[in-house]
Amino acid sequence: MSCKLSTASSPSLSARYHSLLCSCFFSLPTNHSPLPTLFCFLALMYFPICNPFFFSVLQQWVGVGGVLPYNCQGDFAVSSMRFDVGLGRLPARVPSFLCSRTVPRRGSKIGASLSRSCLLCFLCFSYDAAARAQSSPDKTQRGPSPATAAGAAQASLSSAASKNTVKPDEPLAPDPALARARSFLQEGKLSEAESATRDFLRAHADSAEAHFLLGFILFREVQAKWLEAGKGRGENLLYSGDASGAVAEFRDAKAKESLAEFTAGAKYHVPSAFDLKIVALDYLLLKENGDADRWLTRSLQADPRDPQAWYYLGRMKYSSGQFREAIEAFEQCLKLEPHNVQAENNVGLSYEGLQRPEEATQAFENAIAWQTESSARNPEPFIELAHLYLSQNQPEKAVPYLVQSIAISPNVSKAHEELGKAYSLLHRLADAQVELEKAVELSPQVPNLHCLLAAVYRQRGLADKAKAEYDRCAALSGSHSTS
What we know:
- The protein has 25 helices and two strands.
- The chain is about 65% helix and about 0% strand.
- The chain has four domains: about 10-145, no CATH class; about 175-300, Tetratricopeptide repeat domain (Serine Threonine Protein Phosphatase 5, Tetratricopeptide repeat, Alpha Horseshoe); about 305-380, Alpha Horseshoe (Serine Threonine Protein Phosphatase 5, Tetratricopeptide repeat), CATH 1.25.40; about 400-483, Serine Threonine Protein Phosphatase 5, Tetratricopeptide repeat.
- The chain has a two-stranded antiparallel ribbon with strand order 1-2.
């Protein structure tokens, strides 16, 4: 805010007066009687050279007393992030409480028309509000007051953080009252952990930590359900990421519940980088890759040393066809976690997407070699390298890798499919039939598998079986059989 002096004082002298008066004013005690403050305030008002600075001082003092700055729009910053309330959606842009505010020039004209008595009343009111806020630390630690909560959906998270003794960019201290819920979570007792956290929230609805914890528990419940379904339907479900029916409904419902909890908690404290990563993974479960990409990026802005976040960011870039950006993300993951097989395998996939088969082959071979001494090997690099060889019409090179992948995980449909194709190209039709029948058994709802098997049946002279598989293929793909 700028103002012109009505005296003949030089600008430097004016600045010194302004600095001196502001420092005197702000150095007064604010936790005792307001009388010294009011006395000084009267002196400042009636001292002629102080009049031009009156509104500047008053505005600054009110800011110190706890009145929030004007909301202003700005790009995301970790210390000023908020979540919009509604349908579990998170905004792409958020207000920032770190931006400055300006007072229009006409403010001084309007203020000049106010009587000194009204201004004194306003000062007393502001002082009293600030004193009450300082004398009630328990209330300020819980989050925004009812007055600010009325506009929580549209206000910056910083408005809640500014009334919190914990700085918005500092991690929340663990609440001892949530120790039982955390213990259940660590033991894998997710239902008990959810119940304990919900019980706590009934009495402490403004606990950011509890909302974030519940959001994570709900996410973990999706993982547990996924694993349970994988055991019942084979490892194919785990590797393909496919789900349908009750499993898909459970996944979507829990992911949305999880997002709602993170949204609620963000009204009271800035989510951590870990919280943002779980938000992104919730969106990934819902197949909303754009939102997943955005929140993973922001999570990494807060914590660039999280290899898992880099890995999933790479997956998002790969899914959207941004292969170079995907490679960069996977390489960041590998810097933090060398010999990460999944990351190196995805480097290979990204190079394959860029039509660079030599680099892709090297990446797949690296991922395979890194597992030589491992007791729990990942079949994916074997399958992907075989697929690359098949695309280059080299089935003889593909077969050994596919055989190894099936030895590692016998129930991955894709491995049997690729091996069936390789045997067909090598005119080993009986072997091709066995592999494709297994693939159909593991993934009966995939139309292409029925078509591949039908072609092998026809080559082997099994006309009835070929007709049945062609019909099944047509039914699943919504078209008519041409056989």
